[in-house]
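Inputs:
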Amino acid sequence: MSETTGHKTYTRANKPLVWFPFAAGGLVAALMLPVLILVTGIALPLGLIDAQAMSYERVHAFAAHPLGKIILFGVLVLPLWHAAHRFRMTVQDLGARSSGSRSVVAALCYGFGMVFTLLCVAALVSFW
Amino acid sequence: MTDHKTFTLEVLRYNPESDDVPHVQSFTVPYEEDWVVLDALNWVKDNVDGSLTYRWSCHMAVCGSCGIMVNNEPVLSCKAFLRDYLAGGNTKITVGALKNFPIEKDLVIVMDSFMEKLEAVKPWIIRTSERPVEDGTFTQLPKQLMRFKRHTMCINCLLCYAACPQVGLNPGFIGPAALALAHRYNLDSRDQGKELRKDVTASHDGVWECTFVSACSEVCPKDVEPAGAIQEQKIESSIDWALDHLMPGRKSR
Amino acid sequence: MSRKPYVPTLPNTWWLEKPLYIRYMLRELTSFFVGAYVAILIVGLWHLSQGPEAWGGFMSALSHPLAVVFHVIALAFSVYHTVTWFALTPRTTPIMRGDQFVPAAPIIGAQYVIWAVASIVVLVAVLW
């Protein structure tokens, strides 16, 4: 599927493969991250919430439940790919212009996403 | 209100026959309350330096010819009132050629790249099946017109290209106006050319270069909303892509 | 007359030139904090899979002052992501009702309502 007009030939890109997770992850991040950061990063460490709320037993039980796995996967992996794609575009905005440098940036960003996705899946399947 | 009888107009000059790089030249120009920057340029050309080179035509913000940078913002020089720039004690206005384009001379840019991009998106009604004359004219409901009317307002002034950093970073990017016009025709109920345009708009230099900075929609003098047009196409192209890959043979091409 | 167009180069500091660009760059940089935060949570999930002591170690690390400072900054950026995401949504999916477009305000407002509900759900789940 390509079109040659004037001097250039245009072919449809496979960008949707990363754009779908970007869009979905952006929505999940927008809805979920503020409260999660507040709870896990500020309220709990500062003792505003009882540490028992996220004890090993409670969190493990959640992660062991099939629904818990799905929720954790969605909340963690989708924003991860949103961030990977957006950060890739940001590095391009800040100076990576050549196709060579863009390829390296893309590999690093999506590589980061892949590594942490695998880590997340590996952890989730270990809970029963 | 300003009491200036004159002000300083700083112009980025460039003469390809004698210059290697652009340079600033200052002019002292009369201030008139109803003048726009274009009037100041015309005064300089008529009274001081006839070699000052710039594009203009209608002087009423409908032809799209007079796009320039004024104080580092892309505007139509016929719509940029001196009194707005010289309020609060300012005595200087800086003008230059539109950003992100090669400079031909003074304030005139080379816009060939845009013409190629515009042609590439085929900005006309495309029919795959001709409508016989006996069937009469196309009819279009008000809501069908409303769907795409906003995007018809484009006057090809290129302010959006000057504002868009992605155009600056990648000169091959099809760009806001061309993509908005592709969308205008895709949305037109009389058009059947969406698939034909998608190879261009969904290419790497098409909608995917856009990161929704939205500077284009901010500077557009006709409220065309190119940024929104591009995002709509991203969503549609993605759904299309997914369906194409899930159902091979879905497309005739 | 010979032509010799002058081809300018956009400097890498282009985004410092006007407030709109700076706000855009801040929005894009939220991706760093979104990515870093979920990566931290995924690391936490991994520690969870390694047992109660590993989990306890992870929770202590979260209590470190520098960790809390990071999360406060991350919270600010994640809220900025939320606010900008909600504001942009109506422009990506214009909805027609009758002969007119649905105005942006109700669409933005609906997202805030969903955000509030989602946040309350998380808080209830954690505190209960």
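The mean pLDDT of chain A is 93. Flag for discussion at group meeting.
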